[in-house]
Design a protein that fits this description.
heterodimer; A: 235 residues; alpha+beta; OB fold (Dihydrolipoamide Acetyltransferase, E2P); Ribosomal Protein S8, Chain: A, domain 1; 3 domains; five-stranded mixed beta barrel; 33% strand; flat; B: 244 residues; five-stranded mixed β-sheet
Chain lengths: 235, 244
């Protein structure tokens, strides 16, 4: 049962990762007792499971995920939301309005209009149906202020870091409130524009260098440097 | 260029551009050349200059084209008006429509089409400068662009041509050799799986010659495959080197 790469080594589609009694995990597939990579990324061996952490991928909805989307269409009894995925999501009017509503009387554009951003949760999705959203939880709903950063969806775990180390570092250093959408869209709300920009720079750097090691320390240094620069120019 | 050269292979056994019969043209590949596409690749193979761009997967428009159990792959091969000696009309010609289909069918076996039903992937191949075997270089670039877009694939598809010129079996035909030579065999191949996804022949070869030609083309594909992997890796490795 040999393996052909070292842990966290860069692989490309078609690379032979392991042979024999292994299970193909994410972004890997098994054919004729051999495990191959299906995407470009970093290989991970966990006991019997061989998977690839993709460096470039698109978002595929999963029930329970928090996502940030843009309203692209207002229909008779709901909205169509672009969640940065191959599939458009549906948000029903009954999910947003607690009271019963009549399409003839209520104007849905008063609640959410085309171009509005929403934080929502995916409540239903399968291969045959488009994902359905819900905003029936605290913290979900229309976004009124803050800044949006888009990154590769597979890099969200990297932004969170080990046990949330990376995200809590950014939150602490910048004093911003950050909501991570599993679809790679991040909402940053801070006290001032400078704080928000600082958090954005840090997150973009994580996106670019997600496959390197010792990133948390470098981000910490980056934030300190940026803070000094700003502090210096004000005096 | 218009006059036909008398001999395609000289006394030393070298070709018009000084290559040995089993030698590839110099190849340069760049992945992620376009920032607006989801995935892209640029290839220079000899005088060929080809750009490939991939968009998707995304919702299918028009909607009736969507398939309930698999993705739709759409491909457009297009030659720029300035890509050849005599200006080519920018409207899609018969040949370009055929090549679009050929390229689509050559890369389709590499993609997990059943993963994301009701979606479409668009592949655009733009030939900026043509010098023979553009279909092969296009397949090489298109499969790299697909991998760059993060589309799950079984393997990269490498493509290369071989043929017969002046009674010699040669690898990677250029324009003059293709037009004057006696046979041209383009082959697309997935090296890790050992699967041929494209095999065409234009000209006349004996069964023995044909076998030899195909084997030579597959060898060429393996060499190109190594370059493809290198190009895909270097996109990420360069970031790492800047930092450390």
């Amino acid at each position: 049962m040999p393996t052909f790469f070292e842990k966290r080594q860069l692989v490309t589609p078609g690379d032979l990762l392991a042979e024999g009694d292994y299970i193909a995990g994410e972004n890997a597939y098994k054919e004729g007792g051999k495990i191959y990579a299906a995407r470009t990324g970093l290989v991970e061996y966990e006991e019997k499971k061989v998977s690839v952490v993709a460096l470039r991928a698109f978002y595929i909805p999963k029930v329970g995920d928090t996502v940030i989307g843009t309203v692209v269409e207002v229909g008779f009894n709901g909205w169509t939301v672009d969640i940065n995925s191959p599939y458009m999501a549906i948000l029903r009017a009954t999910e947003v309005l607690s009271r019963p509503f009549k399409p003839q009387k209520n104007d849905l554009t008063e609640v959410l209009d085309v171009g509005d951003l929403v934080v929502a949760k995916i409540v239903a999705y399968d291969r045959t149906h488009d994902p359905q959203l819900s905003v029936n939880e605290p913290g979900l709903g229309k976004i009124t202020r803050g800044q949006i950063v888009k990154i590769t969806p597979t890099k969200i775990p990297r932004v969170i870091g080990k046990k949330g180390s990376m995200i809590s570092l950014i939150k602490q250093e910048t004093g911003c409130h950050i909501i991570l959408g599993h679809n790679g869209v991040i909402l940053i709300t801070g006290k001032s524009l400078e704080d928000e920009e600082l958090a954005m720079i840090a997150i973009r750097k994580i996106d670019e260098e997600s496959h390197t090691t010792g990133l948390t320390d470098r981000i910490s240094q980056l934030i300190k440097k940026e803070k000094e620069k700003k502090g210096g120019s004000q005096e | 260029m218009s006059q036909k050269p008398e001999k395609l292979i000289d006394k030393k056994g070298l070709r018009l551009d000084g290559r040995k019969p089993d030698e590839l043209r110099p190849i340069k590949i760049e992945v992620g050349a376009l920032s607006n596409a989801d995935g892209s690749a640029y290839i220079e193979q000899g005088k060929n200059k080809i750009l490939a761009a991939v968009y998707g997967p995304k919702e299918v428009h028009p909607k009736h084209m969507a398939l309930p159990d698999r993705m739709v792959l759409r491909c457009r091969y297009h030659m720029a008006p300035f890509s050849v000696q005599e200006r080519k009309s920018p409207a899609p010609s018969r040949r370009e429509i055929e090549l679009s289909k050929v390229i689509r069918e050559a890369v389709e076996p590499a993609i997990f089409m059943e993963y994301y039903p009701r979606t479409a992937i668009d592949v655009f191949v733009e030939v900026l400068q043509a010098d023979g075997s553009t279909r092969c270089a296009s397949i090489t670039a298109a499969s790299l662009a697909l991998a760059d877009a993060g589309i799950p694939m079984r393997d990269l598809v490498a493509a290369c041509s071989a043929g017969k010129v002046d009674d010699t079996i040669v690898l990677d035909l250029m324009d003059t050799e293709d037009k004057v030579g006696s046979a041209d065999v383009p082959v697309a191949f997935m090296p890790n799986l050992g699967v041929i996804t494209l095999l065409q022949m234009d000209g006349i070869l004996t069964p023995e010659e044909f076998e030899k030609t195909v084997n030579l083309a597959i060898e060429g594909c393996r060499k190109i495959y190594a370059l493809q992997k290198e190009a895909l890796r270097s996109k990420y490795i360069s970031v790492k080197e800047v930092e450390e």
